[in-house]
């Protein structure tokens, strides 16, 4: 009698994509290999190729699934009787799904850039349709907002919903859901100051043309007058943000800065040192700005208000650096990663300490959930740019979430 074989799970392809998504979010796309995915799934590397031709196809399946689930959540209340009920059903579905898939909620935002541009465009169009549908649900409840304000509040609410993926704070499931939903409700009922004029933020400078035989021409953008070391660091940050750490070479950084590749090594030993320098730069600036903001504050509310203004201004001014800080940490040398994670914890502790004083009866883990939601709003809106997501409006939104809400 022949030996029976274990049946292959019908959802094996989906399981592979989910495990891969968790690994991509935890380590970064380029730090995960097919063998890593296979080991986590409990199969061999060649077995993955029965389902996917390569690693990029695994990522594509994972991101496509995430975007499809997002659309399904937004449509969850389609049969509800009122706009408010439809919006509530969509938000609850989104929060539940995010907590179910906490390890992959940021996959689309940070790892989709590694996909084929055409596929990226299709996914972005699908995602944008769902976001617009959510905005229309909000307008059904608050028609006085207008589309620009509704779009801003929708983006902020989605940042809150995604925020559990940015931290490891633990709460019982029911409390976690309710805490996130409470924050979302505060955001969506917020009163915003009037929009400001056209954004005066500088656009991203062009990286310049091909280098001359001897020395590339100095760039004419916002970094042109910086000393060489600072110019290299600034351009490295910009390129790491645009393409991802692994897609940028020393030659790319040198060309963007107007410096021969060989001359880059006069200032930095390699990409890893450039990345570490960017992280230390961000940490140092933030620590000094935070200390200055808190000096002389008379009450916890005043201190938190100053901290909000300072952090929002810093993040909007350094959007590229903030994005690299949030996404490329796994590419740091281990010793640098430990030190910088400790610095990140100290910064979050400052927020949660002040917030706890304003909410003395609230469970500490819920306070941390709320603080991380606020920090995620700032990081996301800073990258949106434009007058709708201005510093003043973002600060006002955070005050309502953390102080008056």
UniProtKB/TrEMBL annotation:
- Region annotation (Disordered) maps to 191-222
PROSITE patterns (alphabetical): HTH_TETR_2 (PS50977)
Q: What is this protein called?
A: TetR/AcrR family transcriptional regulator
- Spell out the Pro residues composition-biased ranges: 208-219
Say which domain of life the source belongs to: Bacteria
Q: What is the lineage of its organism?
A: Bacteria, Bacillati, Actinomycetota, Actinomycetes, Streptosporangiales
Q: Which organism is it from?
A: Nonomuraea bangladeshensis
UniProt keyword RNA-binding, yes or no = no
* Keyword tags: DNA-binding
Q: Which residues bind DNA?
A: 33-52, 249-268
The HTH tetR-type domain, residue ranges? 10-70, 226-286
Q: Which InterPro entries match?
A: Homeodomain-like_sf, HTH-type_TetR-like_transc_reg, HTH_TetR, KstR2_TetR_C, Tet_transcr_reg_TetR-rel_C_sf
Q: Is Lipid metabolism included in the keywords of this UniProt record? A: no
SUPFAM superfamilies tied to this protein = Homeodomain-like (SSF46689), Tetracyclin repressor-like, C-terminal domain (SSF48498)
